[in-house]
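Example record

The entry below shows one chain as it appears in the dataset: sequence first, then structure tokens.
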Amino acid sequence: MSERFTAEMAVAFQASRNSVSVEQVGIAPLVVGSWDLETVKSLARTVGAEPSPSWWWGPRFPLYNGHVGGRRVSFVSLPLGAPATILVMEELIACGMRAFLGLGLAGSIQPEAPVGTCFIPTSCIRDEGTSPHYLASDDGLRPAQRLVRALEKARVKKGVVAYTGPIWTTDAPYREMVTTIENYRLRDVLGVDMETSAMYALGTYRNVEVCNFLVVSDELWRDWMPAFGRPELREALKRAEEVILEAITTLRK
């Protein structure tokens, strides 16, 4: 079956509407994305990446193009939630993206993973509505192993604690029930987010490498304990930025 409306069509329309070419947008084969705008801006400043004036999602969700260790890399701000994230990622793929590293936040449901700990999700429990449009089976909800290895090597070098394991992805953060959290905690699920399972499904379906690196922003195994806006979370995100950039240099070898 074929789609009536494709990302390639949307990209062609947006490019024409903005009187630019896809080449002018400048999407690199490797893209780093985050749902935290300040993180994207910080990464761009660190490597001297320049904003793309031709990107049709900016300035609300800007895109920057630069180099890390001689490799072209794009940095993009993403809208929250699986449907919107996948929409933008589809357009990035249509513009030439072949690998994607996500730097995001997650709620922890494991006491040994407090705020500031990091996760590398290696499998998913999907509780969102986007991934079934790409994969019928849960078997493909896995990251690219090359990216997992690069992140593992980088986080060890940078001295950052990160656990690998399953993540629970949901569309309904205000319906994360106490009984569900306890059930998943006993099954060694690391935490919960809103995008990973859909992103991994997209990557498998489109044959694009995808892996997320998530920083624990709040604790859910007891009464909710958020760290949004606190210095320790911002510091953890800065360390995670270092891991991402180090992982990119590792991918060159």
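Notes for this example: The domain at 7-251 is CATH 3.40.50.1580 (Rossmann fold). The helical segments are 7-17, 22-25, 37-47, 82-94, 145-157, 178-186, 196-206, 231-251.
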